[in-house]
Structure formats: C-alpha cells, structure tokens
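$ ./design --mode recover --in tokens.txt
reading tokens...
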C-alpha cells in the first residue's frame, strides 16, 4: 500500500520529462483516480519549476487546466512539459501525460507564480458559502463526538471499487441536507500525512459522489413511505447502481498557499448545477479550518456503468482506451 507521498513521487528523466508510477491503491476500479493523477502531474510541474525553471522563483501552482482524453492505467507514466510563456509574475507550461503505446492520456496547461509576494488591488466581496456549513471541532471529530459531524462508514464509499477513497477519512453532517445535490465534507488522510499544495489536485476530486446521495435518500424514502418517484428525481432506486464518474475536464485555482509542512484538515463542498443525460458539472470549494478559501475547482464528468472502467483495454496505440 503506497502512501500518498510515495504514490505521487516523480523523478526527472531530462529537463522537460518526468516519470511517475500509478499505484493500485489509488485507483477507482482499475483506473487511477483522476485527482490522484492530477496530483502526480502537479508534482511533476513543481519539480520542473524547482529545477529547470528555478531561476524564475515561482514555486506555487496557481491555475491547473486538464483534459482527460483516455483512461489512465496502473504502472509507469511519462509527463512531458513544454514551456509556453515564462514571465516575471507568472509562467505557463503545457503538460502531456503518456503511457504505454505512446498514448496521450491527459493534456493541459498549468501556471505557476509566487503567491506570497503578489501585490495589487484587493477588494472585499460579499461572497460566502450558502448555506453555511455547520461549525466543526476537529478534535471532537477525531473522537467521533462532534455534535454536527460524524465519520463516514467506509462501506458507504463502495471501498472495494473506490480504493482511492479508502485512503481518506470522511466526516459528513450529522443531519442530512435537504438539498441532496449539495455535498459537504471534512477530509483528512488516514495515514496521518498532511495536505500540501500538490495534494490539492487530489482533494479537489476526492469527495462523496452527488449521485450516491440520491440513491441513499431515494432508497430511504421508498422503504418508509412507498413514494413514487417523479421524473425530476432523476432515477428510481433500483437503477442507481455503482457508477463510475470519469472526469473529462478539471480546472483548479489556488487561492491560498498551504504551509510547507502541510495541514491536517480541509473542508470540501461539491455542488452540480445540472445532472443530465449521463453528464454533470461540479463546482468544488475548498476551505481550511480557519474558514479561509484555499482553492476553487470546476469539473465536467460522465456518469457511466462500472463496466466502462473494468473493460479490457484494447492495445491500439493512441486510439485505444477511450472514455
């Protein structure tokens, strides 16, 4: 079982090429978790900015924009970097993740800066999370005695299939929200590792799936009251099997620099605006224990059967393993 640090470690092959290795315990089914893959790519980009581009003194990922073209797979991966625009305030690189048969599986752009020395106009806005999440006491959450939050049974996560989720502790509201399309959670590593800038790529994609909340509430309602489901309630409970939700587009903007030693806890809220025809958008907000905004993320994901995840990969070079 690889720790997160071990699983996201990368090595330099040359000045613009880096090697990674995807581990089984950070997979969903047979496919490496999308946020885990994102974290590996950010790790390669950080190594690039700390070595090849060290003279620019831009250590912090600022924006990440990735398109997932094909399923990744367990084992070695190559991350190729092309310097696109190198500037004094911010620099942008293009990244390509390649696996066997020279398959390009993930492509995108990442911008780096030095957030700690940023200057310029700052204005206060009226933005806040609505509804506000319940207060949390992380010490009581560890003891599972917090009045507002409880630890989540790993069986709810379908841990045998969603192996990556089994590496995390999830804490959810004691009282379920009336809005089942809104998912709130506190998150920490089971291993005791801490969240760093690179791990934000994983955190922005590590959450309880919105569709699963529909299953749980619909099943409860149907058993207790025999309610008939109308067309607006998405799917009848018998059709809500275990789905795979492959990300096809992920972007991330970092708002706050985490300390080099990392932090133990992060709050994540996930909310879609539409779930329709097997596709959904997801808005992700990440806060720290002080309530500060750490990062924002938006995703486009598909909703497909698990057989799409576990299907045998055809070895047809760049044309294979399509989502």
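writing sequence...
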């Amino acid at each position: 079982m690889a720790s997160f640090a071990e699983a996201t470690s990368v090595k330099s092959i040359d000045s613009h090429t880096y090697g990674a290795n995807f581990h089984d315990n950070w997979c969903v089914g047979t496919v490496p978790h999308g946020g885990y893959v994102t974290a590996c790519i950010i790790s390669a980009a950080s190594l690039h900015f700390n070595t090849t581009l060290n003279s620019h003194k831009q250590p912090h990922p600022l924006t990440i924009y990735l398109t997932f073209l094909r399923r990744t797979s367990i084992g070695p991966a190559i991350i190729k970097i092309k310097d696109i625009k190198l500037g004094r305030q911010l620099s942008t690189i293009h990244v390509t993740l390649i696996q066997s048969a020279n398959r390009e599986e993930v492509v995108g752009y990442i911008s780096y800066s030095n957030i700690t020395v940023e200057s310029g106009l700052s204005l206060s806005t009226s933005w806040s999370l609505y509804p506000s999440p319940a207060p949390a006491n992380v010490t009581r959450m560890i003891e599972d005695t917090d009045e507002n939050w409880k630890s989540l049974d790993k069986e709810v996560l379908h841990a045998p299939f969603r192996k990556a989720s089994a590496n995390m502790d999830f804490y959810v509201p004691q009282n379920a929200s009336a809005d089942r399309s809104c998912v709130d959670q506190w998150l920490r590593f089971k291993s005791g590792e801490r969240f760093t800038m690179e791990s934000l790529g994983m955190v922005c994609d590590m959450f309880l799936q919105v569709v699963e909340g529909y299953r749980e509430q619909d099943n409860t309602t149907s058993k207790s009251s025999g309610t008939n489901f109308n067309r607006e309630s998405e799917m009848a409970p018998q059709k809500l099997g275990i789905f795979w939700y492959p990300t096809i587009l992920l972007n991330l903007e970092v708002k706050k620099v985490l300390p080099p030693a990392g932090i133990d806890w992060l709050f994540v809220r996930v909310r879609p605006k539409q779930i329709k025809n097997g596709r959904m958008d997801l808005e992700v907000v990440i806060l720290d224990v002080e309530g500060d905004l750490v990062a924002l993320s938006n995703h486009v994901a598909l909703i497909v059967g698990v057989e799409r995840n576990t299907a045998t990969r055809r070895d047809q070079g760049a044309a294979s393993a399509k989502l």
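exit 0
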